[in-house]
Amino acid sequence: MRQSSLLDIISPIMVGPSSSHTAGAVRLGLLARNVYDNPIEKITFKLYNSYAQTGKGHGTDKGLLAGVLGLSVDDVRIRDIFHSDIAKNIDYKFEYYNDFNRHPNAVDFLFDGKNKMQISGDSIGAGEIAIRKINEFSVKFTGKYNTLLLVYQDVTGMISKVSTIIQEENVNIASLHCDRSGKGETASMCICIDGELEQSAIDKIKKIEHLDMVRYVRKLGN
User: What CATH number has the domain spanning 6-135?
Assistant: First the structure.
């Protein structure tokens, strides 16, 4: 009988040599895909610092592409993702930068085509990740919770209207992060919740006036 090592116990089940560079990259790609929530036509991956310097050797580029294509961390297709059939349907490229203001394992996803969006995130170790920015707005979520993302006009009562609908579903808010471009301008709301929102509740939220974008991003699996 094979004995388990410490690495077996603490590392995520994954394809690749590094939890931060490979598993974290896949999970970042999956979250970015779910936030974007549109057919992917064209994407640029901007890798920073350690991701840029050692990413190719650790399979970071493969992991990022596999994630946005919807593969999980243990999918063996990651090893040959550049030559896979599913990768032939999108236009993608990688760019590499050094920026001391960014996390050592940072990446920007620049989705292009009919729908444009920039999503920025970090791989923070042991397969753990965090999305930090969507377009010009700061956010904070990790894929551990179901998350509601809203972009809206900065008017009075938006937080109350959204939180009331969530409360009516008997769902607890784990965290709430708001940002705005300026008073009375465009704002964002990032709400992580403990439970699951029914589609009917999401539909109610979508009917609130002054909303420009609604995304319900389900938590990632292990």
Answer: 3.30.1330
Selected residue with higher pLDDT from 207 and 58: 207
Phi-psi region of 121 (alpha: psi -120 to 50; beta: other; left: phi over 0): beta
Torsion of CA 42, 132, 30, 87, to 10 degrees: 20
The answer, yes or no, to whether residue 174 has pLDDT greater than 70, is yes
CATH architecture of 146-217: 2-Layer Sandwich (3.30)
The 3-state DSSP class for residue 51 equals helix
Identical fold at 6-135 and 146-217? Answer: no
Cβ of 139: how many Cβ atoms within 10 Å?
Answer: 22
Residue 13: pLDDT band with limits 50, 70, 90 = very low
